[in-house]
Amino acid sequence: MGTIADRPLRVLLLGGTTEASAVAHKMADDPVFAGTLSLAGRTTNPATSPIPVRIGGFGGTDGLAQYLAVNRIDVVIDATHPFAAQISANAIAACTETGVPLLAILRPPWTPVEGDDWTSFESVERAISAIGVAPGIVFSGLGRLSLAALGTAPQHHYVVRVIDPPEAPLALPNVTVIAARGPFHTEDEIELFQKHGIELVLSKNSGGDAAYGKIAAARRLGLKVFMIDRPPIPKRATVGSSDEAMAWLRAHSSPRIERGV
Ligand code: NAP
Question: Before 50, cis peptide (omega within 30)?
Fold first, then answer.
């Protein structure tokens, strides 16, 4: 028979997104929660966090399940990026195995509006091979992990935006690298595209406001967008915003039975 827990709810917050930051700030203001933000460690200067941070992979599903047990985590919030399919699948498996409740925050995808000229692709590789043989001037907002794929079509001039400047020169004959962290505003994106003579925009369908400027700019300038669709992720409980996640957390923080006691 368990006892009623009278300590803060231990929350593992899988992050790396604006939504994760928002949940971290909301939890930090409330003594009912003891949250830890987990980052993969991909960026050198992550935004400062108001709650404790752990950095680096867990070691697959087994490592994550072990982390949940050792740290006696009560609930997991998966607020990773919609394209971070591996950690999301691992969270589902580890939470199922350990019986820890899991909630994902998944921002709605962007949908085309009047004036957009999108072509959808299931992968970055397919989008790049569809650009064609004639050299073009292409903006890549795909992120650092997709840079290698650009090398399969080296005839184009790429304007590549990444958060951290690359440590070594990119293996691309024609490339301009811009190191910058969002949010990016439409007017600034228009100026950037005009300055570089951009003809085509490569984008993941990330959703949200912070990265939408390039999509609105492409529409205003009449540019094509090659849009990469989101990877499939197994079914899990999902909400669309940090506020909904906080409501879920509050419901789980009300008097509860201590597990394993
Ligand atoms: P991924 O392919 O789903 O994950 C690869 C591995 O990285 C995972 O198996 C896990 O290692 C580790 N990992 C990923 N997210 C983690 C986290 N929050 N905390 C601890 N370990 C994590 O992920 P990804 O696409 O490389 O994304 C990495 C991070 O960047 C995520 O936090 C994501 O939210 C953020 N991000 C990704 C994108 C994107 O386009 N993919 C865009 C913006 C931000 P182990 O198996 O060893 O546990």
Answer: no
Ligand 1 atom 12: residue of nearest CA: 57
CA-based nearest residue to 117, from 239, 220, 45? 220
Site to probe by mutation for ligand 1, drawn from 37, 66, 86 as the one with most ligand atoms within 8 Å of Cβ, is 86
Q: Which amino acid is at 242?
A: S
Distance 14 CA to ligand 1 centre (A): 9
Exposed/middle/buried for 105, CB within 10 Å: 0-12, 13-18, 19+?
Answer: buried
Q: Which of 80, 147, 204 is the pocket-test mutation for ligand 1 (most atoms within 8 Å of CB)?
A: 80
Looking at every residue in the chain, the average pLDDT score rounds to 94
Given a cut of 70, whether residue 260 has pLDDT beyond it is: no
Ligand 1 pocket, residues with Cβ under 6 angstroms: 14-17, 38-40, 42, 57-60, 63-64, 80-81, 83-87, 90, 143, 145, 204
40 CA distance to ligand 1 middle (Å): 5
Cβ density class 113-129: b for 16+ within 10 Å, e for less: eeebebeebeebeebbe
Query: 261 pLDDT exceeds 50?
Result: no
Q: What is residue 216's predicted lDDT score, i.e. its pLDDT?
A: 98
Quick: pLDDT tens for 7-47.
Answer: 899 999 999 999 999 999 999 989 999 999 999 998 888 88
